[in-house]
Write a structure and sequence with these properties.
The protein is of the alpha/beta class. It has 7 helices and 7 strands. Helix 1 packs across helix 7, helix 2 runs parallel beside helix 3 and helix 3 packs parallel to helix 4. It is globular. The structure holds 1,4-dihydronicotinamide adenine dinucleotide (NAI).
Length: 227
């Protein structure tokens, strides 16, 4: 099974690329960063998506892991920052979905996995631009699932909780933040990238053949805890 993974140079996307490769998937890993075994691609660049599919042909899987997050209250955030988050996190995901749809081989099955967040369900202060983008990804996932179904394309999302990656390094190096998280998350710990990669593999494979349009939360129970 041929799968494109975006954001493949770091964190969750790197782990997804490595894990799928080890499980005999044919992985095309792409990222803004130029790294070994990773093709350079800006997910917001429409022409770059056309070129990529021109090179690799139809694919049976796509995992949209590329994403950005900065901190700042609504009053501290510029319009440019707000729009940039929507562009990378939402438009980038949408362009990937559209490219797979356009290049899909009639009569075959495909599966798309988007990366949403617990923040699609529960908000935290100081990152409304990020929270808004993740809510949009879960909603986009539902809409794309409805349009993809008649073509044999399933579309789901994963909603990770706090996962140890470069994006969360600063927060997870702060003992106060870690102890808050450990208290808030029923499983009592931070998650690891491999705990997202295994869900991505499940959603790509035929083992999840009746699942589409949903966000699977891999969050240690965070979104279930009302306390
Ligand atoms: P990361 O910062 O380690 O990796 C993100 C990757 O996306 C980087 O390699 C970066 O170069 C790439 N990227 C950024 N803009 C790009 C663009 N325009 N085109 C192509 N690549 C681009 O972050 P992490 O933690 O691995 O995040 C991956 C996804 O998981 C993101 O969507 C993030 O919002 C989401 N997520 C992460 C959580 C966490 O706790 N780490 C929790 C919930 C969601």
């Amino acid at each position: 099974m041929k799968v494109i993974v975006t954001g493949g140079a770091s964190g969750i996307g790197k782990e997804v690329s490595d894990y799928l490769t080890s499980e005999a998937f044919e992985v095309i890993s792409v990222d803004l960063q130029d790294k070994i075994n990773v093709k350079q691609l800006d997910v917001t660049d429409e022409a770059a998506w056309t070129d990529l599919f021109g090179q690799v042909g139809p694919v049976q899987g796509l995992v949209n892991c590329a994403g950005i997050r900065t901190r700042g209250t609504i009053m501290e955030t510029s319009m440019a920052t707000f729009e940039h988050h929507l562009k990378v996190n939402v438009t980038g995901t949408w362009l990937g979905i559209r490219s797979l749809f356009e290049n899909h081989e009639a009569g075959s099955d495909a599966s798309i996995v988007n990366i949403s967040s617990v923040n699609a369900e529960i908000a935290v202060p100081g990152q409304a631009h990020y929270v808004a983008s993740k809510g949009a990804i879960s909603a986009l996932t539902k809409a794309a699932a409805i349009e993809g179904a008649p073509m044999g394309i399933r579309v789901n999302a994963i909603g990770p909780g706090a996962i140890r990656t470069p994006m969360t390094a600063e927060r997870l190096n702060d003992p106060e933040q870690v102890s808050w998280l450990e208290g808030r998350v029923p499983l009592g710990r931070v998650g690891e990238p491999n705990e997202i990669a295994s869900v991505a593999k499940f959603l790509l494979s035929a083992e999840s053949s009746y699942i589409t349009g949903t966000t699977v939360f891999a969050d240690g129970g965070w979104t279930s805890n009302g306390v």
